[in-house]
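Long-time lurker, first post. I've been practising inverse folding by hand and with some scripts of my own, and I keep getting stuck on stretches where the structure tokens seem ambiguous. Below is the full token string for one chain I'm working on. Before anyone asks, I'm not after the true native sequence, just a reasonable design that respects the backbone. If someone could post their per-position residues I'd love to compare against what I wrote down in my notebook.
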């Protein structure tokens, strides 16, 4: 088995399971070094083969974390390292990776579009990682020119993908009209959903928001948005923590994601794979995934347009919704399935090994 070290991922989540399992079939074994931000990585990791893969929770203290990373690197060699570079310890990792002569790539998860939200030191660390990595794996089209401008050496575009359920439940009881499954972060607009739930035309419908975090683990802006939702929640809106969304998708008619960046959002792809019709805002690359009125709805980047689009969706006849639901599922099955993703990842890994 060819070994890969995933370094600095903030949590090992349900969405990572299928990806690891698929790449295992290509002969790869993973050591996952996580900061375990949500304290639930072990819950999902235990579903993997413990003889092939390893999980390490990194200490919070920077020097203890650095020592733990050095121990992991000594346990190599690895085919390459996959570095999540937005953490405060990235500047400590970089010279160590150089010292061990590691081949490594940066996993660009969206930090390039949110640089203004980070401290000066973190921005410096991320930019240094882009410049010195052997390659950067990015997942959304808007990232390419920004990474070029930061001096990234080699770029690989491998968008996210989703697993089609074994038995798609198109006939399931859809008792949730609008579903949100995401953290309440600054590049998304959860306030729009809260206010839409009070709209006279939508107030009789059911809305559910999943992704509320413990206050102690929240960034200030995220906490502010959570408090706003809790203080202004109308009767038809239910709020939930980080819970497994896979039992929720088959219950939902529409998936709502007003955001600065939409394409490649994992929850969006998962929902579409379950036949949930997406309602999103116009953003870079969204036309690669959603055609307005065909397999979902695309609103302009403003609250008025998004709420109007929610009303438009709510008025759909059942037969029209069923056609759009099948089209959403078909998009994932044809273009954003895990087999395609796995083959693209394997090609990237093979090139990196040369």
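-- Answer (accepted) --
I ran through it position by position. Result:
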């Amino acid at each position: 088995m060819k070994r890969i070290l995933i370094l600095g991922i903030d949590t090992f989540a349900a969405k990572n399971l299928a990806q690891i399992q698929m790449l295992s079939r290509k002969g790869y074994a993973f050591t996952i070094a996580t900061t375990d931000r949500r304290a639930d990585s072990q819950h999902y990791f235990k579903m993997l083969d413990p003889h092939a893969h390893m999980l390490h929770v990194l200490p919070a203290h920077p020097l203890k974390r650095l020592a733990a990373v050095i121990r992991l690197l000594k346990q190599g060699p690895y085919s390459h390292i996959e570095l999540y570079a937005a953490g405060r310890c990235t500047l400590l990792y970089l010279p160590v990776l150089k010292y061990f002569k590691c081949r490594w790539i940066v996993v660009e998860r969206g930090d390039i579009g949110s640089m203004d939200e980070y401290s000066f030191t973190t921005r410096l660390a991320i930019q240094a990682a882009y410049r010195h990595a052997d390659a950067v794996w990015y997942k959304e089209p808007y990232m390419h020119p920004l990474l070029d401008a930061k001096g990234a050496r080699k770029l690989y575009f491998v968008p996210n993908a989703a697993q089609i359920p074994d038995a798609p439940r198109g006939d399931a009881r859809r008792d949730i009209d609008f579903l949100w499954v995401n953290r309440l972060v600054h590049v998304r607009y959860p306030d729009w959903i809260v206010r839409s739930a009070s709209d006279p035309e939508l107030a009789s419908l059911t809305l559910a928001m999943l992704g509320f975090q413990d206050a102690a683990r929240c960034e200030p802006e995220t906490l502010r948005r959570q408090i706003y939702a809790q203080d202004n929640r109308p009767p038809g809106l239910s709020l939930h923590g980080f819970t497994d969304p896979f039992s929720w998708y088959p219950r939902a008619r529409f998936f709502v994601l007003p955001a600065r960046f939409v394409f490649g959002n994992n929850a969006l792809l998962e929902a579409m794979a379950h036949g949930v019709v997406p309602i999103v805002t116009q953003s870079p690359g969204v036309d690669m995934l959603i055609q307005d009125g065909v397999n979902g709805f695309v609103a302009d980047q403003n609250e008025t347009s998004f709420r109007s689009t929610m009303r438009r969706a709510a008025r759909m006849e059942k037969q029209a919704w069923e056609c759009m639901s099948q089209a959403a599922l078909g998009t994932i099955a044809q273009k954003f399935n895990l087999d395609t993703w796995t083959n693209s990842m394997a090609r990237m890994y093979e090139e990196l090994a040369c």
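A couple of notes from the structure itself: The CA atoms of residues 3 and 77 lie 8 Å apart. Residues 2-161+337-353 form a domain with the Rossmann fold fold (CATH 3.40.50.2000). Happy to go over any region you disagree with.
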